[in-house]
Design goal:
Layout (H helix, E strand, L loop, with lengths): L2 E4 L3 E4 L4 E5 L13 H9 L7 E7 L7 E7 L11 E2 L1
Antiparallel strand pairs: 1-2, 3-4, 4-5, 5-6
Length: 86
Amino acid sequence: MLLIPCPNCGPRIETEFVLGGPVRAQRPEDASGVSADEWIDYLTVPDNPLGLLREKWWHAKGCGAWMVVVRDTRTHDLNPSENTHG
């Protein structure tokens, strides 16, 4: 079980949170400049790296804050120095 560092409540167990998915690149402002294949990949193909991954988490059963947590996909260790809230 992950112990997720909430900026308001302190470390809490993973079951208090909802995973919002990986932090993704910004949506293209001008979609007409993107090919159909690139657009389909942007909408449907999530990042699945081996190593560090920035993820959005929502403290649903707590203060309601959204935060970005950096997690190592190999070990599930969290990197607190890179975690942010927003």
